[in-house]
Every structure is written in structure tokens, then in C-alpha cells.
Amino acid sequence: MLASKDFTIEELLIAAMAREIKDGDFIMHGFGIWTPYAAFALAKKTHAPHSLLFCCNGFCVTKEPPPMSLIMYEKFAIENAMQVVGADFMNWIMGPRIFSQANYIEFFTPAQIDPFGNFNVHLIGSYEKPKVRLPGGGGISEVLQIYNRLFYYVPVHEKRVFVPKLDFISGVGYLNGNLEERRRAGITGGGPYKVFTNLCVLGFDESTNRMKIISVHPGVTVDQVKENTGFELLVPHSVPQTTPPSEEDVKLIRNEIDPFELRRLESLSGANRMSLIEQAYFKELGKT
């Protein structure tokens, strides 16, 4: 087993997410979120060769992972697509062919998430006068009807993300924990399953549907997770450590899946983020 000094938190998260992808899964990949995409690529190369990807960049379905790229991703995705869906992609996703598949999953990145897995990607503050206007739902409320397993990815685990009450409900988790209320609302999808953060992996208690700690990452304590969460988490008597990536996982991520280190972008901000984008762009430009 690799020691924590032999892998980064991004590589740990990619490997942990990849383990949730089953062979034959159909993964939906949104715009500009690289870590869940790297997890798909890793699963594809290791244990899930028959998994498929819907790329929002290019609105197409592919079985070959496009390179993690600032330049070539969309071009490769379209050129190697099994089907280019185009602007009518929401009708395609919600149409009969989606229900013929076994497992459709996605990793959402919420701006806010509450104890029952409801989440917000619309705005911070009041609806009338928001402090921040976010990208919005982009069909989230529709696709939640059909996903068998719903995952969340939070690059930075902090209280302003894990909140007791959302400023706006963009996507429904377990509502107030009452599954009957969820059924009455006509929501037929499988519901939230796990949350991956830079501190831990979270899940949902089967009896209360509240968020609980499943594992903490190497070097992280349960108290650290609780201190950075804005509501009370359920904590089992014994909390294991998140399984590290294998040596093969790390080699694949660094050498084949993400040689330009785009996986680091989601944990950076400001000048550091712009610096990595610039470095990655010119490295890739020199190889194209």
C-alpha cells in the first residue's frame, strides 16, 4: 500500500470515485469538472471497460475517454463519438433509450449541500438580491428522476458548502429525510449515495437519510471533518481510513490520464489557478 507522501489528495479522490463506477455504467460528465472525469478514465482503464461517457463538451456519447485537455478534449470527443446528440441533448437523455440502460450516474459539484443531500448550484443569498449568481441547474431537476446513483464531489470541505439550510434548492436529495414525501413529489431516481471531499467520504444513513461519515482521508481526523461542516454529521463508532490509490492508479493518472495536472484546478483559486492553466496550456500546445 502506498504511503500518503506517495500520492496527492486529488489522486486519492480520483481513485475513490473510480471504485464507485461499475462496468457498464453510463457516466454523465458536466462542464469543466476534471476530477470526476479522471475517475471515469481510471475506471475505464482498470475495471470498467464497458462504461460509457456523455460529454457535455460536444454533447456526444463516447466509449473512449478524451484526453484531459484545455485544447483537444471537445475535438477528440466529437471525432470519436458513438453518437453526437447536439443541442437536443436533454430530450435525448430523458427519452426511452436512457431507461434501457442499467446505471446512469453523475458526480455533481454543489455550492451548498444540506444534511439530507439537497443541493444548490443557483445562487448565494436571497433569490431577489443574491450575493452571488451561480451557473444554475442546466437540467439537474430533470435528470435526478432517472439516475440510479447520485454522487457529490466537493473539492474544499468547508462550512459554507455544508449548510443546515440551502439558499435555493437546485437538486432534490432526500428532502427532509422522509422518503414518502420524495415519492409523492414524483422523484423516482435512486437518490444521493456518497459525497467525496478533500477531507473524507460521506454517505447517508438508511433509517434517517441524514449524512454520515464513511471514512476519513489519511492524516485527517473525525473532529476536523466535524469542525468544517455546518451541521451535525452522524458518526459511526469506528471510522476507517479511506483506501489509498494503488501504485498502478497513480501511474495511470500521472502518465496517461492527466499529464498536464488539470486535476489540481478544482482545489486552486485566484493567481495559483491561472498560473496552472497557463502552464498546462503551453505544455499542451507544445505537444500538439
What keywords describe this structure?
13 strands; two-stranded antiparallel ribbon; 288 residues; Glutaconate Coenzyme A-transferase; 10 helices; alpha/beta
Detailed description of the structure:
It is a single chain. Helix content is 29%, strand content 18%. It is α/β, with parallel strands linked by helices. It has a single domain, classed as Glutaconate Coenzyme A-transferase (3-Layer(aba) Sandwich). The strands form 3 sheets. Strands 4-3-2-1-5-10-11-12-13 form a 9-stranded mixed beta sheet, covered by helices on one side. Strands 6-7 form a two-stranded antiparallel ribbon. α1 crosses α2 and α2 packs across α9. The longest helix is centred in the last third of the chain and has 16 residues. The radius of gyration is 19 Å and the shape is globular. The two termini are 36 Å apart.
What number of domains?
A: 1
As residue ranges, the low-confidence spans are: none
Estimate the strand proportion.
15-25%
Assign the CATH architecture.
Answer: 3-Layer(aba) Sandwich
- Following the backbone from N to C, one meets helices and strands in this order, namely HEHEEHEHHEEEEEHEHEEEHHH
Overall number of strands? 13
Question: CATH fold name, please?
Answer: Glutaconate Coenzyme A-transferase
